[in-house]
Amino acid sequence: MAKRLCTAGVLLASCLHVASAYGDIRFLQEATFCPFDDHWYPAGSGILLADRSRCLEPGASLSKVVMCTINPKTCQPQWFSDIVDTNTTVEFGHVTAGINGIGNLSDIPTMTMLRVENCAPNFTLRDFIPPPRLQNLSLINCTLNATEFYRVPWPASLSILTLNSNKLNRIDVPLSIIELRLGNNNLRQFRNFQAELEVLDLSGNNLTNLTDLNLPRLREINLDNNPNLATIANVNFTKRLAYFSAKRTPIRQFVVFDETFLSLVELYKQNASSPRLGCLFIDYTNATNQTILACNQSHGNMTSLLSSMPLSVCRREEVKPPLALPETNLPTAGQPVVQGVAENSSAWPLGQITLVSALAIVAIIATLVFLRWRYVSKKAGKTAIVKDEYEYSI
To answer: Contact 337/292 with Cβ under 8 angstroms?
Structure first.
């Protein structure tokens, strides 16, 4: 009996060993398959990964996750980060090596922040799979262009995006972004962005104008070092605005609505009370006859932010559609104009006229439907009687 048990135990151990070996072999086979298209990566490239099937140091446990760079031609690891347990919260990843791309980082689901700087030339995001809980992403000095962003499955958690010092001439970013930093790029225009933005940095670009922006939640905006930005028009900021800077930006025409005007006035008052904590910085060219004429044509008024401040802006009131009045209330020649409807006037308000008209139309339609139903019913009744008589006579 003991001999049989021993034999069974040996067989069970052998089976477990074989199964384990088969699992390791299968895992290694998956790891040796290289999914990257080396056509997009120059020789000696490095791709940043956090993939247990790729980034395994000798003797490392499969329950561990490491970040590494691999060669896209051979998929051999080139550099290893510290080993990270899968249950450990990794909030921040910082890479300053000259990598050529980013691959799958989804094996570190707890990573919320990633910062990559000084990438190699021809950097690409074509293989990038972000961590599922990523909130803050910085790609700085990585020679990015706008087409890179269309390929990436951005997580809904991403809210802060920093893309300073790249080659962006246009940009479409996820709708979840509330803080956007695009300093030192090649942007010429900035339009149609989501109203949820709270922080916006457009410094060091080639903007020529900034028009028709509605950013009611904006707290900070930086327009420094835009040498061609001559016009800011029809932008809407609110009292949330706490910082506005346009240093070394020769604005010649500044057209704002009332709410934006009051926000800038408030910032200037804060500057006066706390000079060290500057909130408003504008290098502004004095108003010319041309800018004054343009302001008048847009139904605005050139107004100083404060009487003691030489900075003037074109202040416009937001145009609201006028309320329509019944024609019977329009004054005749020589009759004084009275706001609203006269107390003894026999004319109905527009709302009542619309309601009565709608009820009349409904009544007409109901009558037509009833008459049609009655006609069809009578016709059907006659047909049924003739048929019954015929059958009965037979």
So the answer is: no
**204 within a domain of the structure (yes/no):** yes
CB contact burial 114-124 (16+ within 10 A = b; e otherwise): bebbebbeebb
Q: What is the pLDDT of residues 9-60, one digit of tens each?
A: 444 444 444 344 434 433 443 445 677 887 788 877 888 888 777 776 666 5
Whether 73 is covered by a domain: the verdict is no
Which residue has tokens 């479409």? 172
The DSSP call for residue 148 is: G
**The total number of structural domains that make up the chain:** 1
**Is 345 within the bounds of a domain?**
no
Domain assignment of residue 133, given as a range: 91-316
pLDDT tens-digit readout, 322-347: 444 444 443 443 444 333 333 333 44
User: Which residues does 8 contact at the CB level (< 8 Å), separation at least 6?
Assistant: none
Round to whole Å and give the CA distance between 350 and 324: 8
Alpha carbons 101 and 108: distance in angstroms, whole number: 17
**Residue 281 or residue 30, greater confidence:** 281
Residue 211 is part of a domain; what is its CATH number? 3.80.10
Question: Which residues are within 8 A (CB) of 215 and not within 5 positions of it... i.e. 6 or more apart?
Answer: 193, 195, 197, 200, 221, 235, 236, 237
Q: Residue 259 to residues 206, 271, 295: CA-CA distances in angstroms?
A: 27, 19, 17
Residue 25: phi, psi to the nearest 5? -65, -45
* 0.90 exceeded by pTM: no
| Spatial separation of the C-alpha atoms in residues 114 and 39, rounded to whole Å | 26
pLDDT recorded at residue 330: 38
Residue 71 lies inside a defined structural domain of this protein: no
CA atoms within 13 A on the CB side of 274: 7
CB contact set of 87 (below 8 Å; sequence gap of 6+): none
Fill in the amino acid letter for 282. Answer: I
